[in-house]
Each structure stands twice: as structure tokens, then as C-alpha cells.
Design brief:
Layout lengths: L2 H14 L3 E7 L9 E6 L3 H17 L6 E3 L6 E5 L3 E6 L1 H7 L1 H6 L4 H10 L12
Parallel strand pairs: 2-5
Antiparallel strand pairs: 1-2, 3-4, 4-5
Helix pairs in contact: 1-2
Length: 131
């Protein structure tokens, strides 16, 4: 599936069930792992899990592959890996703490991004359940 179509599908899926503060970050210029990062907030563990499940259902229905999902057990931060696009659904306090928008926006200096990436679980293979 083409990246812009996948991005639109994910944003629509999040909006369908009231995802908040949806932000899309184009990471293609400084990241070889994925091209887009979508971050959204949910008000509760139940809502973050529901948002992530809805994204997965819509992606599968459209023929996209869901590579992995992490964090559904607690629901504080659920990561959905769709290959070229990674979705982070977080509760507001977790989102504020990790501040992925600043980390991935490219506005931080390279040394700042490296330090933040080392402590951030938002990289494929190091999701919200990694310790």
C-alpha cells in the first residue's frame, strides 16, 4: 500500500473513534526504518487499546500488513508497526513524558536525538514493553 494512502487510512481510523491530538511526522529524510510516524492520544487504557485495534483492523481490511503490536497489555502506550508507518497511541501523561514529537520531528540536534532514542522505546524492536 502506498504510504500516503496508508497514512490517510490510519488517521481516519484514529479519528473514527475519537483519537486526540493526532500528529503525523515524516521521518523519511533522517530514518531508514520507516517513513511516517503517527502519534495519537487516548484518555484511558481501554481507549488506547481500542484505537490501536481499530487501526489494525482497518489496515488489514485494506490489505496492509500489521508487522507487530506492543503494549496492549497495559494500554498506556500501544505501538502498531505497519512497516513504512509506525503508530503510537499513548495516554497523555506518557506522551508528554517521552515527547516523541520533538524526538522525531528533526528539530533536535543529532546528539539530542541519539540520547533520546537510547531511552525511547519507540524504535522498531524496542517498543513500549521493552526493558
Amino acid at each position: 500500500m502506498e504510504i500516503n494512502a496508508l497514512q490517510a487510512l490510519v488517521v481516519d481510523a484514529l479519528e473514527d473513534i475519537k483519537g486526540k491530538d493526532i500528529e503525523v511526522i515524516d521521518t523519511s529524510n533522517f530514518n531508514a526504518l520507516f517513513d511516517r510516524l503517527v502519534i495519537a492520544s487516548g484518555d484511558s487504557n481501554r481507549q488506547t487499546r481500542a484505537l490501536a485495534r481499530h487501526v489494525q483492523e482497518k489496515a488489514r481490511d485494506a490489505g496492509a500488513q500489521v508487522i507487530s503490536v506492543e503494549g496492549e497489555e497495559t494500554g498506556e502506550w500501544v505501538l502498531v508497526d505497519l512497516g513504512d508507518l509506525v503508530v503510537h497511541v499513548m495516554q497523555p501523561a506518557v506522551r508528554a513524558y517521552y515527547n516523541l514529537e520533538e524526538l522525531w520531528s528533526g528539530s533536535a540536534k543529532p546528539s539530542d536525538r541519539s540520547a533520546a532514542a537510547a531511552r525511547s522505546p519507540g524504535v522498531r524492536g524496542r517498543g513500549p514493553d521493552a526493558r
